[in-house]
Amino acid sequence: MMVVEDEPELAGALCEALTRESFAVDVAYDGGEALEKYAAHDYDVVVLDRDLPVVHGDDVCRAIVAAQRSTRVLMLTAASAIRARVEGLAIGADDYLVKPFALAELSARVHALARRTAPAAAPVLKRAGLRVDQASRTVTRDGRSVTLTNKEYAVLVELLRASGGILSAEQLLEKVWDENIDPFTNTVRMTVMKLRRKLGTPQLIETLPAAGYRIR
């Protein structure tokens, strides 16, 4: 996902809060930068400040809508008037949040929008004795509690959502890490290795050489 906010302190706070929720977050500080990043990446959700320099947030929203992707837009603004909110939604925003707001509410709205970008997934994912409750973010294997880092949890969820399909390392980088990650890193391999160790035996995550990973 991408956060577009010209106030660095607020942008940093939003990025930190959403990263804790296992989102991969890119940040843009003006509308021009946002459009450049949007052209290069496929984002599920864009948190978009309306009053942006270089290119106004309204125009960024129009460009996102015109691209006809599945991206959802949560627009932020300091204007609390109903007319301003109606204008933002009429442009094509999927949701609207007035500053100041609680980070918990922002997170809940982003999660709701993210669920609308893909086919509905069961709130509890199960496979071969593995159980992931996405509401409580708890993981168990054959009744044993498994403690995972945010990245390990996000990788596991993506693999389970693939329903036995193969996800390449590049796809996992795109879904779980942000744009600053080195595309030649071995981070995915190391994360999967730690995940396998924590999930225990028999091994559930299969590596297919030159292809990627899948849950058996």
Write out key terms for the chains shown.
216 residues; alpha/beta; Rossmann fold; Arc Repressor Mutant, subunit A; 8 helices; elongated
Q: Which SSEs are present, and which pair or pack?
A:
Layout: E1 2-4, H1 8-20, E2 26-28, H2 31-40, E3 45-49, H3 57-66, E4 72-77, H4 82-91, E5 95-98, H5 103-115, E6 124-127, E7 130-133, E8 138-141, E9 144-146, H6 150-161, H7 169-176, H8 187-199, E10 205-208, E11 212-215
Organism: Parafrankia soli
InterPro entries: CheY-like_superfamily, OmpR/PhoB-type_DNA-bd, Sig_transdc_resp-reg_receiver, WalR-like, WH-like_DNA-bd_sf
Domain Response regulatory: 1-114
Q: How does this structure look, described?
A:
- With 216 residues, this protein is α/β, with parallel strands linked by helices.
- The protein folds into 2 domains: 2-115, Response regulator (Rossmann fold), CATH 3.40.50.2300; 124-215, Arc Repressor Mutant, subunit A (Orthogonal Bundle).
- It has helices at residues 8-20, 31-40, 57-66, 82-91, 103-115, 150-161, 169-176, 187-199, and strands spanning 2-4, 26-28, 45-49, 72-77, 95-98, 124-127, 130-133, 138-141, 144-146, 205-208, 212-215.
- A hairpin with a 4-residue loop joins strand 7 and strand 8.
- Helix 2 (31-40) runs parallel beside helix 3 and helix 6 packs across helix 8 (187-199).
Number of discrete domains: 2
- What is the 3D shape? elongated
Supply Rg.
18 Å
Sheet bearing the most strands, described? 5 strands, parallel
Structural class, by secondary structure, is alpha/beta
- Percent range for helical residues? 40-55%
Low-confidence runs of at least 5 consecutive residues: none
- The CATH homologous superfamily of the largest domain is termed Response regulator
Report strand order across the widest sheet. Answer: 2-1-3-4-5
Level-2 CATH architecture of the largest domain:
3-Layer(aba) Sandwich
CATH C-level class of the largest domain is Alpha Beta
First-to-last CA distance = 28 Å
